[in-house]
Amino acid sequence: MAGEIVVGYDGTQCADAALGVAIDLARDLGTKLVLTFAYDPPRIGGEVRDLDEALEHRGEEVMAAASAKAKEAGVETETVIHKEKASVALASLAQEREARFIVLGGYGERPATGAILGSTPHKLLHISEIPVIVVPVHE
Fold it and tell me: What is the reported pTM?
């Protein structure tokens, strides 16, 4: 459905702030939220497979909680778990869905910090062809 809102969500305080804004936008625009948990899977075997399974399980948990919160507010949702870097996953999913926006939280780090440390909002702002809304959270 074109016009959906893709939301990056990982269960943190930052993601909760973004979810609140996305719920309000979806309700106002009469559209659906595509809640997305993305993680870069481990690339080596052994115990790392356990980490991959734990991350996927965590994704399922936070997606269920976010979906319940949106549904309480009367907003339709779909959940997606991507096994790739969050910025790439969000940009490609939004492009493929012809999303209206991508919404995610940001801790408001300085641009140089985001560029050096590789923050997801910083990367996404540079690679996405879909408008990105970064909801600031200051701890």
Answer: 0.87
Domain encompassing residue 127: 5-136
Does pLDDT of 48 surpass 80?
no
Query: How far is 94 from 104, CA to CA, in rounded Å?
Result: 12
Give how many domains the chain has, as a whole number. Answer: 1
Mean pLDDT score, 59-87 = 96
pLDDT in tens, 50-69: 888 888 999 999 999 999 99
Report how far apart, in Å, the C-alpha atoms of 82 and of each of 48, 55, 68, 88 are: 17, 11, 20, 10
Distance CA 99, CA 28 (A): 16
Measure CA 4 to chain center. 13
Contact between 104 and 15 under an 8 Å Cβ cutoff? The reply is yes
Give the rounded distance of the alpha carbon of 65 from its chain centre.
14
d(CA 95, CA 89): 10
Average pLDDT, the chain: 88
Phi, psi of 75 (to 5 degrees): -110, 130
Q: What one-letter code names the amino acid at 130?
A: I
CATH number of the structural domain spanning residue 68: 3.40.50.620
